[in-house]
Amino acid sequence: MKKNRWMYGLGTVGRDMVYSLFSMQLMFYLTDVLEISLDTLFYVTIIMMIVRVFDAVNDPFMGVLVDNTKSRWGKFKPWILVGVIISGIFTIIMFTDFQLRGAQFLVMFTTVYVLWEISFTANDIAYWSMLPSLSSDQKERERIGAIARICANIGLFTFVVGVVPITHWLAGITGSLVSAYTVFAISLVVIMWFFQMFTLVGVKEEIKDVNVEETTKVSELFGIIFNNDQLLWTTVSMVLFQVGYMSTTSFGLYYFKYVFGDEGMYSVFAAILGISQLAALTVFPRFSKHYNRKQLYFAATILVVSGYLVFFFSPSHMLFIGVAGILLFVGQAFIQLLMLMFISDTVEYGEWKLGRRNDSVTLSLQPFINKMGSAISAGIVGFTLIISGMKEAVGPQDMTPLGLNIFKFSMLILPLILIVIGYWVYRTKYIIDEKKFEEIQHELQERRNQ
Q: Which of 112, 127, 260, 286 would be 256's cystine partner, CB 3.0–4.6 Å?
């Protein structure tokens, strides 16, 4: 059991490094490294939004493919392997400068971006869909999920802390920041491939044979999703949260370069937050022993709201920014893990309500949430850079008071509003507490024994 926790969790260390490269750094790479034109940025923003929305909507269909896969290695691992290899190749291509500009660049960018999204989706859905099959015990799932989120955040914050100093160091060796990003991308892909082997080789599934239909038809897909009301409300709530959270984090490097005035402090800030978030994920199982999930989510939301308010109203001083960041990211760490648990529990709820177990279709809503959040936040970031004048700025001295206010609203106030609405949706619509889940498990076991 303990081996499964770590073999599963370690698999996502490199994955989250690569995903962070795309979700948090791609826009900065395009605007400040490749230095694409304002017109190109406008079209890139629209393309990123459309592709990410398309990819998010495509996730449940990928879930059907995974659910219907039959092989000697199970239904999850073949997709994990194929997805990680292909997405790694397209990662390297995306961060290689082929000296294309204008329409040629847009065609190349769109093609590579679509293919990367599809291949990473195959890996992502198969990986997270495996979680419910590792244990039927709610607390054990929390332990597995906590370790997976810890490993994911180790990957995320290793990337965030290292991206600025490492790429600048590589630029000194390779001769340019553009080529430095290519070498950096290759390194992350190798790390991703290495850590995925832990999951592919070391993880053993616990739940394999349950009394459900053997295959899922595409025509049944929307019925599975829309008839699972708890899955739907969880998705709505968490998309709102992810849009807010990902908008804030995507603006991070821009904030330190164009508002704070010291790009190098971004790595220091990220290190503080990374330690805080990992600490929060580490202690989560202890808190979950004494408090139920509804109490934990409420407390986490209070921390997040407090962090945003401190960030917005305090002066641009590292002490205040650090305190705000700790509040925000400790709360976010709890919500991040709770989100995974909420969706995992809707697998049993769906089986109980609909009479069939659809792990992959249900868990496909986890990457759907991330991608919808990423799609909308990409639009917010891209259009904010254009409207605020930040794309044409060289440093803080080029930013107007109006431009700064537009930027701070998009980075702090709008995300805060969305996160509060997301919490309200959860609080009023989600019914699967610990007691309800126990009842569902008991009834399902009785059905299987008949």
A: 260
* Domain parsing of the chain, residue ranges: 10-200+220-441
pLDDT in tens, 172-191: 999 999 999 999 999 999 99
pTM (two decimals): 0.76
Cβ contact 271:45 at 8 Å: no
CB within 8 Å of 284: residues ≥ 6 apart: 142, 146, 296, 333, 334, 337
- DSSP conformational letter for 76: T
Does domain 10-200+220-441 sit in CATH 3.90.550.10? no
Rounded to whole angstroms, what are the CA distances from 232 to 45, 166, 174, 298, 394?
28, 41, 49, 20, 44
Cα distance between residue 219 and residue 62, in whole Å: 14
Q: What is the pLDDT of residues 411-450, one digit of tens each?
A: 999 999 999 999 999 999 988 877 888 888 888 777 777 6
Tokens matching residue 320:
């205040």
**80: its two tokens:** 């994990």
